[in-house]
Amino acid sequence: MKAIRFHHFGGPEVLQFDDVPEPKLRKDQVLVRVKACALNHLDLFIRKGLPGVKLPHINGSDVSGDIVEVGEYISDLKTGQRVLLAPMTYCGICQQCLEGRQNLCRQFSVLGYANDGGNCELIAVPRANVIPIPETIALTYDEAASVPLVFVTAWHMLVAVCNVKAGDVVLVLGGGSGVGSAAIQIAKMHGARVIATAGDEAKMDKSRELGADYTINHYKEKISDEVKKITAKAGVDIVFEHVGQATWDESVRSLKPGGKLVTCGATTGFEAHFDIRVLFAKQLSFLGSYMGTLGDLHSVLKHIFSGKLKPVVDKTFPLREARAAHERLEKSEQFGKIVLNP
User: Fold this and answer.
1) pTM of the model as a whole
2) Which sign, positive or negative, has the C-alpha torsion 27, 28, 33, 37?
3) Which residues contact 331 (CB under 8 A, 6 or more apart)?
4) Which residue of 147, 205, 232, 256 has the lowest C-beta tally within 10 Å?
5) In this predicted model, what pLDDT tens digit does every residue of 209-236 receive, in sequence order?
6) Could you give the CA distance from residue 48 to residue 6 in angstroms, rounded to a whole number?
7) Which fold is adopted by the domain 151-288?
8) Could you please report the per-residue DSSP string of 285-309?
9) Which residues are registered as beta bridge partners of 169?
10) Where are the domains of the chain?
């Protein structure tokens, strides 16, 4: 089969369109023909080099496709079913997993990080990762692949970690990103007011179309100053962070007393500094969030399948053009998800 993989770490130029062996199906696995695989910033980080990645490697965490074959131990799925994949791996037997907190498992990882992912034509995964797409749902493969990682992450951050509620004011950094576009919708669905940042007028317009009440151009305006104007100096209840070093100070300054900053990433850098006196004097909460649980994914998928939440597809590329797709993501040219089609 064909796959995009890299034999050494580096820039987009290391991506190769290779012939690789088809996966061998275990009795407890499902073989899926990949129809679409969405990109994440994790794909860029892995390609550049992260610990634990064995080379050569196939990226890809967000997969949709059709079931080709089911293992002998599986009786509730059939060939031809349209499915999307839960983008996580875990041991399934530790206390955290058995309590439904898979993202606290010591072996928890993202599909396509510690193992090969979906930038290929066929992938074999455990039954628990396979989620049928209801036959009555008009969800394209590209849309389905644009759901799992960003929506489970945003849901876990806002609902499970921050308990977002009606009346909250939520600042979403990078509304044009996949996770940002998901966060805008989830916050609005829970009755919050949303302030979204974006890098140009087109992305600001699209953020408002998704439900953002206010937008800030984070390249031309100082985020905390604009937040003070919008909130009459009160600040926000929740800051939805994933940008990191470039926005951290402004994110902290935008919080109201007792506010929460929740973060799932650091695409612009990992070093952050803050005045500890501000932390305790304003009684702030700094919260870390790593993807989400299977329960979170199934919860958010109910709203995807009902049409209340909608995946945002930016642009699709043939699998062989993965380099161009990576370059688009690295330049932050996208609004929503970039998708590869095998």
Assistant:
1) 0.97
2) negative
3) none
4) 232
5) 999 999 999 999 999 999 999 999 999 9
6) 10
7) Rossmann fold (3.40.50)
8) EEEE--S--HHHHHHHHHHHHHTSS
9) 193
10) 2-147+311-341, 151-288
